[in-house]
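Internal tracking record. Fields below are filled automatically when a chain is submitted to the structure queue. Please do not edit lines marked as system-generated. If the sequence contains nonstandard residues, flag them in the REMARKS field before resubmitting.
Queue: standard
Priority: normal
Entity type: single polypeptide chain
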Amino acid sequence: MRAIQSKNNVALGELVGFSKESWDQKSTFDDVFPYIEINAIDLKTGDIAEVELLPIANAPSRAKMIVRHNDIIVSTTRPNRGAIAKIEKGQDGSIASTGFAVLRGMKTDKVSKDFLFVMLRSMLSLKQMEQRTTGGNYPAITPEDLKQIRIVVPDMAKQEKITSGVQSSYSKMRTLRAQAAEVLVGAQKQVEEMILA
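SYSTEM-GENERATED OUTPUT FOLLOWS
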């Protein structure tokens, strides 16, 4: 925390608004709805691995938060795990669990949304979230406490450099994972061919 205090820093709640747009579990959709649960977030990259299509009749009570393109969703349950994602265009209008805080409109032009996403997933932020959690097996942070975590705000040039570097690393990770999956499929086919030969 001392390292953060020595830099230009601002409380999260002063940088971005928290959305309260919610779904009544009746309107908008016909039979099924797109649902984002906490365990759908890739903890390494922040990608949403899967948006489930669930029957409205079976909607979990936590399926309430409407998310929009470019929103950042932050898991408030065990937040130090880093289940934090950015909503892509094709996910606009999906329904997220109430276990997420939904960060929407920026309150300043001194911080980019992409940089904020990177910072929220950094250990500087995750440690602060952990310090503010309460509870036993499933410690959680309240939206009010989440608003109090401090975000280091460098100049825009540095923000862009940091964001670009992190996004490049995420891209490499996705490529390597895809290659590893191909190798695994090839190995499985080879085993099958050898057994059936």
